[in-house]
UniProtKB/TrEMBL annotation:
NADP found in the keyword field: yes
Described function: Cell wall formation.
Molecular function (Gene Ontology), one example: FAD binding
Protein name, per record: UDP-N-acetylenolpyruvoylglucosamine reductase
E.C. designation(s): 1.3.1.98
Gene3D superfamilies hit by this protein: 3.30.465.10, UDP-N-acetylenolpyruvoylglucosamine reductase, C-terminal domain (3.90.78.10), Uridine Diphospho-n-acetylenolpyruvylglucosamine Reductase, domain 2 (3.30.43.10)
Family: Belongs to the MurB family.
Catalytic activity from the UniProt record: UDP-N-acetyl-alpha-D-muramate + NADP(+) = UDP-N-acetyl-3-O-(1-carboxyvinyl)-alpha-D-glucosamine + NADPH + H(+)
Enzyme class (EC, first level): oxidoreductase
Amino acid sequence: MPTLEENVSLRPYNTFGLDVRARYFARFASADALRQLLQLPQVRAADKLILGGGSNLLFTQDFPGVVLKNEIRGLEILSEDGDSQTALVRAGAGESWHGLVEYALDQQLSGIENLSLIPGTVGAAPLQNIGAYGAELRDTFDHLEAVEIATGALRVFSAADCGFGYRESVFKNVLKHQFVVTAVVLRLHRQARPNVQYGAITETLAELGIGGEPTPQQVSQAVVHIRRSKLPDPAEIGNAGSFFKNPEISQAAFDRLKSQYPDLPGYPVPGGVKVPAGWLIERAGWKGLRRGPGAGTHGVHARQALVLVNHGGATGSEIRALAEEIIAAVRQQFAVELHPEVNIL
Ligand code: FAD
Ligand code: EPU
């Protein structure tokens, strides 16, 4: 029988390192264990938070309900397809995402090497269709298995069912809080297909002395190198990666801004232009800013303005207040609306 702990500190379970408490806390290592938990009266009655690695969460207060921590393990190759030179790989939702990337590389399978070193669990990856360095989860996604919270029923979601978008899926909007992802199945390639469209990868490969067509391992190595140089390691400085999404604005709005700020970068997307929020925040003067007593307890990362950080001792409400100030400042200076990527609780 699964156990429910009471009044548990969530500090070890969120990468901002915020010391909030959960009224109830339990772990599950299988879909069946999860179903048993969901039937407990305290769990049925309470608000539920499904927790992976806590790397995309900002707690602004204690969690008054039940935190259910996903620890479903398992990595396996389900099948090989000789014609398409692909393999289906199934991962338990509680596996670490980067562990899955390493497993794929060990099995000589490519397709997710550009997503190396993204923190968190496999099960959370579809929630916001994780993406980095020219790749997204949806590029290799085949299907996922999820347990419906209300009924305990297992449901399979195809890519189309998931409604993936930029940092979006149905699990963040129409089906929010309704399903627990228990396994993810990817279709990976036996034939390496290096994806080096993201400029920094080519530059880094050259810097690392890697010539010719890179192997998936080498692409992974380059991505790891770039990420370590830019993004703060949560083990050292509390953070949840990009705090905001990169906003998509109309072509007309982009042209107006570009005439005023000729060095504003922009990437065409259907219906407009995506602009880097990090650029807007930096240009508005917030990069490296620190708030709070002494040398500052929280602020904007000095090497990546899109990342808000807890230097130690900040509260989630303080970080949320800083985010709100940044949203207002960017709105005032550029008439662009920023939206948080991080889930604020
Ligand atoms: P959590 O933070 O535990 O949960 C996130 C949300 O998903 C919550 O709403 C939670 O309830 C829900 N959830 C979690 N697991 C499940 C499940 N099994 N079923 C249903 N709902 C669930 N993201 C990117 O896309 N690209 C990046 O390059 C990137 N870089 C990052 C760098 C750093 C340093 C950090 C700290 C974060 C970064 N992120 C990035 C964000 C984060 O790593 C991803 O969003 C990741 O997928 C979150 O996984 P998690 O297990 O930690 O999720
Ligand atoms: N930039 C600045 N100043 C900054 C930061 C960025 O001017 O302080 C500008 C530069 O012009 C740079 C551009 O922004 O060329 C893009 O910067 P970067 O390559 O660092 O990427 P990003 O847009 O800031 C996005 C994702 C990251 C992902 C990287 C790499 C979002 C919200 N963020 O960041 O994802 O790792 O691209 O692909 O889309 C995350 O989601 O948590 C995350 C870290």
